[in-house]
Amino acid sequence: MRRKFISGILGILVALLLGAVVMLLQGYDPLATYAALFNYSLGGIYPLTTTLRNSVPLILTGLSASIAFASGPVNLGQPGQFLIGALFATVGGMYIHLPAVLEIPLLILLALIGGALWSGIAALLRRWFSMDEFITTLMLNMIADFFTYWAISYPFFDKTAYSPMTPQIDPAGWLPEFGNFNTNVIVMVLVLVVMWFIFSRFTAGYEWRITGQNSIFARLGGCKIDKNYMTVMLITGALAGLAGGLIVMAGPHRFIKGLGANYAWDGVMVAMVANNDLFGTLLYGLFFSSLQSGALGMELITAVPSEFIEVLQSVIVLVIVAGRGLLDIALDKSLIKRKARERTA
């Protein structure tokens, strides 16, 4: 845990330093740029609540990827599962009208079911035809993209709109807001805590982790590999679907073209940087959300293009992931030398 923390801090610092060098070469002031960046993402109630709200899809899709990768399945279908979960929640909100105390949990459940259904297709293809989920989940992303675009362009199209989108869901399905704070953050935190307990404290979570580390050992130890595979695929798909549903329920309260943006792929990136650690996913999700939320304000104040944040994110990923192995080697060598000195003394 200590090594992960050190690796992450050093990676971020090195990436920020490299970013500063690039800005200097382009004639920008790095200190003013970073000050504007974090001021517009963390410097006040409104920027902070915006960052928290924007972090929800990053963290939930990152959580989906982290659990999948740590348990063995290579589920890269978060973008498609995100879209299908959002569509299920939207259609449910359009046609089901209940009091908010029932409507909100129902739409959340529909989003979970939508994501699980889409990941379940890939899981069944693996079980029945031995098709690698690495390929099938990627292919299903494209199908989900085209399918949801068709859905919002024809059967569920809002005839009063000028571009593909659905009508708004029932207001009873809107997630409550307290000032600028949206309760989608509370849902995300509760889900994260539940998944951490399952993954770290339950027998099922132990079997998932062991299978991810050594599937042969897990099988010999009595773990039900096939059952666990299906369970992990369904749960991780449900998490990505939930991210899509919460986006709709928190606003814009309808499915619009481009709803998925890059949330899911950014979530996968967060999982890679966190090295599949669940609370690491939370922290990195918040950090990347702060970068993205402050990008526009940074551009307005310092004229540094907001696309610079995408470059900075990529550098952070490369430095942390690549530097993790080098740091482990350096720390191991240091530990060996220290023990050798102790024996000599």
Structure notes:
By secondary structure, the chain is mostly helical. The chain has a domain at 55-275. The chain is 77% helix and 1% strand. The chain has 13 helices and two strands. It has a two-stranded antiparallel sheet with strand order 1-2. Strand 1 (177-178) and strand 2 (181-182) form a beta hairpin. Helix 1 (2-25) crosses helix 13 (308-344) and helix 11 (263-273) packs across helix 12 (278-302). The longest helix has 37 residues, at 308-344. The radius of gyration is 22 Å and the shape is globular.
Which short descriptors sum up this protein?
single chain, 345 residues, mainly alpha, two-stranded antiparallel sheet, 77% helix, globular
**Secondary-structure element order, as H and E?**
HHHHHHEEHHHHHHH
Q: How are the strands ordered across the major sheet?
A: 1-2
Report the total helices. Answer: 13
Instruction: Provide the β-strand percentage band.
Output: under 5%
Helical residue percent band? over 70%
How far the N terminus sits from the C terminus, by CA atoms, comes to 30 Å
What kind of oligomer do you see? single chain
pLDDT averaged over residues: 92
Regions with pLDDT < 50 over 5+ consecutive residues?
A: none
Count of strand segments: 2
Instruction: Please give the radius of gyration in angstroms.
Output: 22 Å
- Describe the largest sheet: 2 strands, antiparallel
Structural class based on helices, strands and sheet pairing: mainly alpha
